[in-house]
From TrEMBL:
Assigned keywords, A-Z: Membrane, Signal, Transmembrane, Transmembrane helix
Name used for this protein in its record: DUF4386 family protein
Leader sequence residues: 1-19
Top-level taxon of the source organism: Bacteria
Transmembrane as UniProt keyword: yes
UniProt KW Cell wall biogenesis/degradation keyword: no
Segments crossing the lipid bilayer: 49-71, 78-96, 130-148, 155-172
Phylogenetic classification of the source organism: Bacteria, Bacillati, Actinomycetota, Actinomycetes, Propionibacteriales
Length: 215
């Protein structure tokens, strides 16, 4: 899987995230009322973005496993830490995505005030809060850890720079298009890992000297 699907997934998965972001209608503000209003105004786009996001998560599994496999020989600890963080964050992200249809149903309900109250109550529950924290720690830091490990193993330093840059721009959340630029930086970092310059440098292991035959 890391050879036949992993390399293409490194390119396709983050681009699907960018496509999902551009497909979904952006809220006018970062509050529950604005987010529900944006969903209600374009439910078709919201559903399409959900499908693209889920496909991206599916492809991120072989993509992340491929990065871990590339790194395991030269930097096993970096590989274990980065892959573990990334997969944990990815699972948390998928768990949060599961609330998407519920959010759409609430956005389309006639009682908007009640829908806002229910959404706020859900987001304040311990489990969704834990998912958000795991996503932020794992999904944000995991790929950067893998990128740094790849660089220390001989890959181009552009890999961790692009991945970290994407995180910084996304966390700034300065609007629809700056956020898209952050996703594009992340896609460029993952895409480089699908090329030879984004992989660990090949190392030739010296053959042991032959043992002289006993006469």
């Amino acid at each position: 899987m890391t050879t036949s699907l992993g390399r293409p997934a490194l390119v396709a998965a983050p681009l699907l995230v960018l496509a999902a972001h551009l497909t979904q209608s952006s809220p006018s503000a970062h509050d529950t009322a604005s987010e529900l209003a944006s969903i209600a105004a374009a439910t078709g786009r919201y559903q399409a973005a959900g499908v693209l996001g889920f496909l991206a998560c599916l492809l991120f599994v072989p993509a992340l496993l491929t990065l871990g496999a590339d790194l395991r020989v030269t930097r096993p600890r970096w590989a274990a830490a980065g892959t573990g963080l990334s997969i944990t964050g990815l699972l948390a992200l998928v768990s949060l995505q599961g609330s998407g249809p519920v959010s759409q149903a609430l956005a389309e309900s006639p009682g908007r005030a009640a829908a806002i109250a229910v959404t706020d109550a859900y987001e304040g529950l311990p489990l969704p809060t834990a998912w958000v924290l795991l996503m932020l720690v794992g999904w944000v830091l995991g790929p950067v850890v893998l990128g740094v490990g790849l660089w220390r193993s001989g890959a181009t330093p552009l890999v961790p720079v692009l991945l970290a840059g994407g995180v910084v721009v996304q966390m700034a959340d300065a609007g629809r298009w700056p956020l898209a630029a952050g996703f594009l930086l992340t896609a460029a970092g993952f895409g480089l890992c699908a090329t030879p310059i984004g992989r660990p440098a090949s190392r030739t292991v010296a053959s042991p000297e032959p043992v002289p035959a006993l006469s």
